[in-house]
Write a structure and sequence with these properties.
Structural class of chain A: alpha/beta
Strand order of the largest sheet of chain A: 3-2-1-4-5-10-11
Order of helices and strands of chain A: EHEHEHHEHEHEHEHEHEHEEHEEHEE
Oligomer: homodimer
Distance between the termini of chain A: 27 Å
Radius of gyration of chain A: 22 Å
């Protein structure tokens, strides 16, 4: 393995994205097979401008603390890329003699990784490209799940459990609580809230996902019926739920984000108003928003470890001469839960989305199947001891 | 001390309200001075209907687990009370030979406690009434702070710190994040978010409290200027911020709650739309809602202990023959931080609100003073080891 390495983080951060960065770095240090190791400052932005941080001699103590720090330590960025942009990125890499490129990201990022690999090839520049999966949405194909999802799932399940404890202690208050999760097109995170309903509170939340068409009349009936039964009501909705015509709820009033997608986050407020206006109950919403991807105290031990191992596995793939692949997690054991780190072609994951399997969702009871519970439960196991000082977490930046 | 005890929890729960319940119970068990100990089921509701749970022989293991459980374990309730209701409550207490009444609540509840005490007196029924302070809003008078506030403050400071880590890693994304805290008339919780800005992220959030008139033009300027400086912007607003005429923002569109108060929670969404519509930036909001009063994993050790000690102190006051008083915390040491548990007349706290001191707020920089930081920092210290199973907290109900 000759040449330098470049690592970039992409898209929205997760609570464990820095673990994948650290996994790559640790494996590079351990094997001593890499030349210099750079990090693209602010992701694509740094790649477009050749702005790299030299990470070669990052102390181990910094790495250990980065593993308990949310946000993307290298910085990240979102923009639409032209072919000319990609050429420019490869040229910057060529100037810095980078032969190994690691891209930590979701399905959009894997598309970019693929473009980079192909463009380098066309330019006659030998570049190894490895994708490391990352997304709280769990919508990456060809991997059992994506690092980042487990911690966000644990965050949401804890949030919904805590809230259930609160509202169950105020029965008859006429209040309906609607929790909104991330999930543009995929209901994985909303579905994970089902884990909250297995303990003492004994009230499963009503779950609404983008994969099942949303009907306002049915929703209001569900709410009323849960309220009548429990004296309170709790619904969990994906930000991207859609009506039977495939339109986002209140789509007309939704602005666009920098890459032209509807800027979601707010459907729970809309539904809360709907409840207040159409029933004798009062809706209110809880919107954890970007906290669900950055709440380090809720990260799961399993997810943290897997994100780290995925980084290490990515470096090993590069060592073995693989390119144009993404690290993929395959579940090889159920009891005890174990995964193997394999790889899949970027071409087969790039730009594709893996939605929530319809057979795991019951649109009558607004709940999820036992099969999904068994799928998701191992991913939220274990806690991380985040260093605390003066009552708050101590985070590392670079 | 002869006669039975009744304990009731009132209003919105906090993460530590069960600690005050446990403190009373533990002290009663320890001193063996009480007769039977009852808990009013669902607070005022149980008092109106004479529905009490017998807590006399609650096992210690249950109490220990209750101390790590959010929600009001006895249940709670909100409604407007007439004088006839209060008479009815006292009559139920007389039937059950209750001579000691402990009411865990906020300023509205202290008003109720006072009515109960006076009514019993008028009815010639000897009843000792003790108030135990509880509120996440910290708006109770004549106590250094209220149990419940420290944990909610820690929750908000952690939330804002995590989010700052996330958004600082995506500079230039044109996004503005607005976090909304509880605080109908008092800005204590929003102000506590300032603690997040003292670590590595080094970006103090812009803070808006109900005590300082809100001006839209100034807000948009603040946001733009923070964005220009940091490449991102983060504001924290109390749900009850008001304009210069004292009107809630978007007041016309706000529904009323069961006791006739405007149902708050949503001003951050309004402000996010304002940002998107009036700047080149895109607003988005984070609304932890009732999670900030039930997020047990964020509870502060100090707050948990103080809530418990306040319960114990309340029982001791009853033993000493006091009545018509609320337990009050007085800060007697700064370094190390220590408090004494004293008492104040219900008449002096009932129905009064303690707002955030204007001298602790700088409406130019939208930040808080060092004096406030020194006031609030001790209250968020220390963590609580919540029992976990299968990746989620294990909570106790009774």
């Amino acid at each position: 393995m000759k040449g330098n390495c470049l690592i970039a983080q992409s898209g929205g951060p997760t609570a464990v994205i820095n673990n994948s960065l650290c996994g790559i770095l640790k494996q590079a240090m351990h094997t001593q097979k890499a030349g210099k190791i750079f990090g693209a400052k602010r992701g694509i932005y740094g790649m477009l401008h050749g702005e790299y941080a030299n990470l070669t001699h990052l102390p181990s103590t910094v790495l250990d603390r980065l593993r308990c720090s949310p946000g993307a330590a290298l910085g990240s960025w979102r923009c639409k890329l032209s072919q000319a942009d990609v050429v420019r990125m490869v040229e910057h890499m060529r100037s810095a003699e980078i032969r190994f490129f690691f891209y930590i990201g979701g399905n959009g990022s894997m598309q970019v990784a693929r473009m980079i690999e192909q463009t380098a090839k066309e330019m006659g520049y030998g570049l190894t490209v490895i994708g490391i999966p990352k997304t709280v949405d769990n919508d990456l194909c060809l991997t059992d799940h994506a690092p980042g999802f487990g911690s966000a799932a644990k965050f949401i399940a804890t949030c919904v459990l805590d809230i259930a404890m609160d509202i169950r202690s105020l029965p008859g208050s006429k209040r309906v609580t609607i929790v909104e999760t991330m999930g543009r097109n995929a209901g994985w995170l909303a579905a994970a809230s089902a884990l909250s309903g297995e303990g003492d509170t004994d009230m499963p939340p009503l779950i609404y996902i983008p994969e099942a068409p949303f009907r306002t009349d049915r929703f209001l009936e569900d709410i009323q019926s849960q309220y009548d039964r429990y004296g309170c009501a709790l619904a969990v909705v994906s930000e991207g739920i859609r009506d039977e015509a495939g339109r986002l709820l209140a789509e007309d009033s939704i602005a666009k984000d920098p890459v032209g997608r509807p800027q979601l986050g707010g459907v729970s407020a809309y539904l809360a108003r709907l409840v207040s206006g159409n029933t004798g109950l009062q809706g209110r919403n809880v919107l954890p928003g970007i906290w669900q991807r950055s709440g380090m105290l809720f990260s799961s031990r399993v997810d943290v470890d897997e994100a780290y191992q995925a980084g290490k596995a990515g470096f090993q793939l590069a060592l073995e001469g693989r390119s144009g692949v993404m690290v993929s997690l395959r579940r090889i054991g159920k009891n005890p839960y174990t995964v193997a780190y394999e790889h899949v072609p970027l071409s087969e994951v790039a730009g594709r989305e893996r939605t929530f399997p319809v057979e795991w969702y019951d649109s009558r009871s607004r709940s999820v199947s036992q099969a999904f519970r068994e799928y998701v439960a191992p991913l939220i196991q274990g806690e991380v001891l985040v260093p605390m000082n003066n009552g708050l977490p101590v985070y590392q930046t670079i």
